[in-house]
Structure formats: C-alpha cells, structure tokens
Design goal:
The structure holds 2 protein chains of 2 kinds.
Chain A (H helix, E strand, L loop, with lengths): L1 E4 L8 H11 L6 E4 L12 H13 L3 E5 L7 H12 L5 E3 L2 H7 L5 E3 L8 H9 L2 E5 L6 H9 L6 E15 L3 H5 L18 E4 L5 E6 L2 E9 L4 H6 L4 E4 L6 H12 L5 H9 L6 E2 L21
Helix pairs in contact in A: 9-10
Chain B lengths: L1 E5 L3 H9 L4 E4 L17 H13 L3 E6 L8 H14 L3 E4 L2 H10 L5 E3 L8 H11 L3 E3 L6 H10 L3 E9 L3 E6 L1 H6 L3 H4 L8 E6 L2 E6 L2 E6 L15 E3 L2 E3 L7 E3 L4 H7 L3 E4 L6 H20 L8 H9 L6 E2 L9
Parallel strand pairs in B: 1-2, 1-15, 2-3, 3-4, 4-5, 5-6, 6-7, 7-15, 14-16
Antiparallel strand pairs in B: 7-14, 9-10, 10-11, 12-13
Helix pairs in contact in B: 1-2, 1-10, 3-4, 10-11
Classes of the chains: A alpha/beta, B alpha/beta.
Amino acid sequence: MRLALGPVLYYWEREQLLDFYQRMARTEVDIVYLGETVCAKRRALRSEEWLELAHRLAASGKEVVLSTMTLIEAGSELGALRSLCANEAFPVEANDIGAVRLLAGRRPFVTGPAVNIYNARTLDVLARQGLKRWVLPVELSRDTLADMQRQRPQGVETEVFAWGRLPLAWSARCFTARAHNLPKDDCQFRCLDYPDGLRLSTREGQPFLTLNGIQTQSARHCNLIAETGELAGLGVEVLRISPQSRHTETVIDLFRQCLDGRLDAAEADAALQTLTTDGSCNGYWHGSAGMQQTHCGEFSCS
Amino acid sequence: MELVCPAGNLPALKAAVDEGADAVYIGFRDDTNARHFAGLNFNDRRSREGVEYAHRHGTRVFVAINTYAQPAGWQRWQEAVDRAAELGVDALILADIGVMDYARERWPQLPLHLSVQGSATNPEAIAFYHEHFAIRRVVLPRVLSLRQVQQVAAESPVALEVFGFGSLCVMVEGRCLLSSYATGQSPNTFGACSPASAVRWTETPEGLESRLNGVLIDRYADGEVAGYPTLCKGRFAVGGNTYYAIEEPTSLNTLALLPQLRAAGVAAIKIEGRQRSPAYVRRVARVWRAALDACERDPEGYRPQAPWLEALQQVSEGAQTTLGAYHRPWQ
C-alpha cells in the first residue's frame, strides 16, 4: 500500500506551511494532496505559489494532487474552483460535486472523503466520468468497504483515511470566530492561533470535538494502524495520513515501517498513541460509533 | 412560490392539504428517508390513502428517499423508488447518486428533485445532477446567505426550493457526521440525527443531564427549559467558556425574506418537520399559506403579520427563531 498525505486542514502561516512541505518532501509518503479545502479566507499561499510548491514536490518524486474547497458557496469560490479544475499540470481531488462536474469527462480525478460515495452504483457513475481514485467517506465501515471493493469498477483505486482528526462536518458558520465572539466576516484570522484546531469539550471535561473554522473534526485521532492487515486484504491501495503541526514525519515513518513488515502493528500502535493529545478512535471502521476505540487484539491485526 | 409541507403521518398530510399546501412530502417507514423515527412515516396502505387524498384536492405528493444506500441495504432503496413510482407520486426527493441513477433508468418519466441531503450549494453541483439525472428541482442546504441564494438562483439550470421554517441544521446537510461519530447512526446512514435510542436523561446533584451514547450534551439548572439533546445544540466548553458552541436551540423562520426570495426566482418554500404533530403542520401551513398569498398579491407592500410570527414562535425550538445563514451576521 502507498501512503498519502492529505491536505493540511488547518490554517498555518505561510512559513510554517512551506517548511512543513520541505520536510514532507524527504519522507516516504508517496502522494501529497495540496491546497486549502476548508475556508476560502485562508490565503497562506496564492494559487501560483501552490502550483510552484506542487512542482517542487513532484520533482522530489511525489505524486501531487491539487485539492479543491469542500463547501463552495460564493461566486468567488466558484471562480477559484473553475481555474483549479482547468489546470493541466496536476490531477485534482474533487471535494464537492461541483468540482466533479468541472472535471467529468475531461480528465481523471480523485474524490475526497466529503463526496458521498456510499455504494457501488455511485462508484460506477463516477468511474464513467473519469474517477481514478476515491477516498472512503469516513463514517463507512470495513463491511461496507468490503462489499464495495467486490463490485469496484476496473481502474479505480481506493484510499482510506487512516490517521488524523476526522473531518466530520462543514457549516456556513465559523465556530472559531464564534468562540471569540467575532462575526465570520471579521474573524481576524483566529484560526492561525490554533495550528491543530480548537478543542471542544463536554461540560464534564471530556474532549469531544475540534473546531477548525467552518469545519468540525473529532477530538480523537482516527488511527487504523492496527487494521492495516485488513485494509491490505481488502485491496485498498492508499492510506491517508492527515497532517498535524507536530509528529507528522513520525506518523508517516511508523505507518511505512508497519506496512513493510519492519515493525509490528501493536508496537506501531503503541508509538502512535503517544502522539495523540486526546486519544484515538477506530469505531467507524468496526461499524460502531466513530469515537469508539476497539483495542488491538480484539480484532485481527497484521 | 409553492408551499411544500411535511407529513409524518396521514393526519398531518390531511392537515397540510386542508390548509392549502401546494405539495406535501412524505417518507416510508424505514431508513430510506431522513426522518426515520419510531412510529413515523407511511406504510403501503397509508401512502396510497395519502396520495389519493392529496390528489383529490389538487395537492402534489413528493416522496423523500434521501439517505445514502450502502451495498448491504441497497435493495431497500431500490424498492422504495419502485414503490413510490407505483403509487403515482409527483416527484422523488433523492440524495444518493446511485439511487438517482437507478430511478432515472427504471422510471425515466418520474420527476426527480435533489434533496437537501445532496449538499448542492453551487450552480456547478446543481448542473451535475441536472445533466446526469435530469433533476427538475434542487432543495438548497441551509447554509447560504440571501445574496448567495440569489447568485445560485441566477445561474441554476433548475428550480430552487429553500427552507422557510422549522428546525435548523447548522451544518451542511449530507455533510454532517457528528451524530454517527457519537452514536454510530447519522442522517446519511440511518436517517436520524442524535437518535432517540442513544438519549439518556439523568437527574444529578448538578442538574438534569442529557447524554447521547454517554456523551454529556447539556446540563440544566432548576428552572431552565430542557430541550431534545440534538448534538449541535448542546452547551460545551471551548477555551474556558461554556456556551452553545455550535448553535442555540432555535428554529429557522424566513417569513421576513419572502419578497426577496420571490424576486430571486425561488420556486418553492419548504417547511421542515415530518417528525412534528398534525397540529404543528396545520398551524404552520396556515400561516405560510396566508403569507405566501399576501406576498403574491403585493410583494412591495408585504410585511410579516404579528399573529403569524406569534403562531410560529409558539412551535419553535427554544421558542425562538432566527434567519439563520440567510442573514450574514448569523454566520
């Protein structure tokens, strides 16, 4: 299996972002998704700069995919989407059906986890339009994936979100601005203060969700390292690691070692657990509540 | 503009028809629709009676089959499409591309609407569904500002339906997994958000607590009104403050925007609430029929009447209403 680095979901300063990708170029990650997918107000890089970055990463041997925004509302967002989908240098990850429409029948594309592909007939429709890889929606289980893999159209690869806080919801409202009593139109770019999002806890102090502008994520890290054997058995080609401000190289390294059989899954799992702030979860994979963690040993591990 | 009213059972359907709804929307008694609640929705016999009653009074019937089908349950969605087509309904409200593809192939004459669960917020997305499945109408997610609705309306290849009144989803419908993250069941997969089976109420020394699969959603002091623990409407702690971090318990009400929506070319106003009582449907349908007629007669002179607002206030969540995302400062 190959490893993909998902798009950076947070708002990082330009220097932090450029430094991050310089380091990522040296890791064993195979595929890099690039671009702002959450909020159009975040402009760490201009679109030409994203393209330059894409060329640099490609030159260092990475397969580069440009990711579109997920929630597309304003006319200006639509304009940016149209020009991104018209680029001829790199394939595009469509995170909205509007992007699929712009790419359909023109060039091969990838769909991100927020494009709702829940059954094989949907996969067929999109494959006829040029889908070359799809990311399993994060709430779907191993059993559903197994059914879909059996009926998967030829030439379509499957990618699974395997590490990181789960992207769970998108809204018109900015929850980070709301946390600061600011209107969205005057958010003062507060997301910059939270390079790994803003934690939301219950009234008894249980970390529950992560606020990331208009996006809501899980507080726990999804962690499927113990399930890599099953993932390989189901014919999944790519595992996605979602970037975070710290330890991303270590996470990539642990996954790579585990996939290559150089490190036992239980050991890799133990090492990964130390890198989470609020614990990990794999409930969706096992067909239960996403926040749940089924421990290695209860299910088969590689 | 048309008035599209919810009906969770036959008495609610009759109430909507009697109060002048142009169309009613219903669902079957399973997870193929986004109001999959115990005791709600239509079996074969009731749906036949409902369609007959509505058609006799000149009201159209739409069937919502607007959750996402997974391979293990695919047959149920296919049968729901067939059953609705055989009932002679006027349109299907669909979200899943696979289900749409099936409906289009098997029942090419049956009009299809894109459900709000299809998450189409821009003209390119709408055009995709129009080109591939010939959808005739799209229900817009409750995340667009009025200006954005106007922009989409100007470019959309199909008619728009927007939400006018009822429970407010803060998140883009079809793109919210908060419920399955906490409970294993979401609107997409199961047809319910924050399902009742996961709810627990406990009286504690700190107050009345509502939990969803063990997660504390809210805690009420004496005298505070406790609401249903919809996950996004609880009080949580962020950065040392405890507040409605996502949204207050409130209902959407766009009575004040009718002339603008009309001018934008919006074709229909949708009322939320298939899970609500026939009395709710009757009251809300009556107000909206009057408002839409008044707006039609004299768009410039139109003003929401105090008795309308009062009537809606009484059936609103938390007894308060908002313009929601239509009004930019809410965002």
